[in-house]
Design a protein that fits this description.
With about 210 residues, this protein is mainly alpha-helical. About 55% of the residues lie in helices and about 10% in strands. The strands form four sheets. The chain has a two-stranded antiparallel sheet. A two-stranded parallel sheet has the order 3-4. A two-stranded antiparallel sheet has the order 5-6.
Length: about 210
């Protein structure tokens, strides 16, 4: 859901500049591999003692346990450009958490992806969005983003079938592939309308439609 190509009135060359700007916070970006809740709490306690955190609410990793509710908070993407994209993202995140929880309960510790590879994958995703290549976190290879998404959809398919959301997600993914990312649509609007005001007008018109 890359949707922030512009910054201070200029095209950054990235589809999702938010990822780069958000990374300036000391506890932001991809979380480290954590063995469990106790490990998470000990890491947060150490970060708090160091002064990097004010309290647990200021852990800005892109996935974290909520400090108030029994749930997982995921904030890896830009704000989606439409309600339909928000629904698509929410359904995918829920399915991913469902599958991951089932695997953890079955004793699967999950892949141990290095922090270096995760940061490269973040950078590539922020630069290319849906229109280029991403990094497969299992192999480290650069592959078309559509291929990575298709792999994700296959991974979470059992959860989507179980929740009755498979058709909604597949329909949303087909639309997104045809329409392009929010970043691509913003750039197209700027080219067509000639101003950032026109980009905002385009977003409003799409929302009302």
């Amino acid at each position: 859901m890359a949707n922030s190509p512009f910054w201070t009135g200029r095209d950054t060359g990235y589809a999702g500049w938010r990822v780069l700007s958000w990374g300036k916070w000391p506890v932001a970006g991809p979380p480290p591999y954590l063995e469990g809740l106790g490990h998470y709490e000990s890491v947060v306690a150490g970060l708090t003692a160091s002064g990097a955190l004010v309290d647990p609410a200021t852990v800005f990793w892109d996935a974290r346990p909520s400090h108030r509710l029994p749930t997982v908070e995921v904030r890896v993407s830009d704000v989606p450009a439409s309600a339909a994209e928000s629904v698509l993202l929410a359904l995918l995140v829920r399915a991913l958490v469902t599958v991951s929880l089932e695997r953890v309960e079955a004793g699967d510790p999950g892949p141990r992806v290095t922090g270096e590879l995760l940061r490269v994958a973040y950078w590539r995703a922020a630069r290319d969005g849906l229109d280029g290549h991403g990094v497969d976190p299992h192999t480290g290879r650069a592959v078309p983003v559509a291929e990575i998404v298709e792999g994700l959809l296959e991974h979470v398919r059992p959860a989507l079938v179980g929740s009755g959301d498979l058709e909604t997600v597949m329909r949303g993914w087909r639309w997104l592939r045809a329409a392009g990312s929010g970043a691509a649509r913003q750039r197209a609007a700027l080219k067509a309308r000639g101003s950032f005001e026109g980009v905002v007008d385009d977003l409003v018109e799409r929302f009302r439609a």
